[in-house]
Amino acid sequence: MSASPARIEVVRADITTLEVDVIVNAANSRLVPGGGVDGAINRAAGPDLAKAMAGLGRCPTGEAVVTPAFKLKAKHVIHTVAPVYAQHPEKDVWRLLGSCYRNALGLAHDHKAHSIAFPSLGTGVYGIPIAQACKVAITEVQAHLATKPRPHHIVFCCFSESDAALYRAALESKEGY
Q1: Is-catalytic flag, 14?
Q2: Rounded to two decimals, what is the model's pTM?
């Protein structure tokens, strides 16, 4: 019996409501609950998520760590720290952002996740231009899928329809960064 083909989809939704094995959190390096996606995930998961994050200490930019998902529908939350656009040379921004996706996908694979949902990492208060960020995301996911069987369902969960349209266009063009 062969494995089902990988599926990549783009949705406009609240990431905390998705029925996936892993939700990726756009965390800060101190792993302290913040605003945006991080705040929404922490509110939905309940206070035990913040305690688990605090127990991990810190997470360097581009790295990823995993916790249980507590009250979320997911099994795990993978926390990754995107670079702040204004604080790095542009080539380092793309390298570090790519590392966020590679490390999150690696942890999801190691935890035998079949599905994973990503927010648009770094494109909120960290200021990374979304048109380029979604190309990095698509490129890294496709590179991962070329060598690993899991997760085989990848969701890019966008806050707005305009963001989702950029992800769909990047996915259709398969244009790398």
Answers
A1: no
A2: 0.94
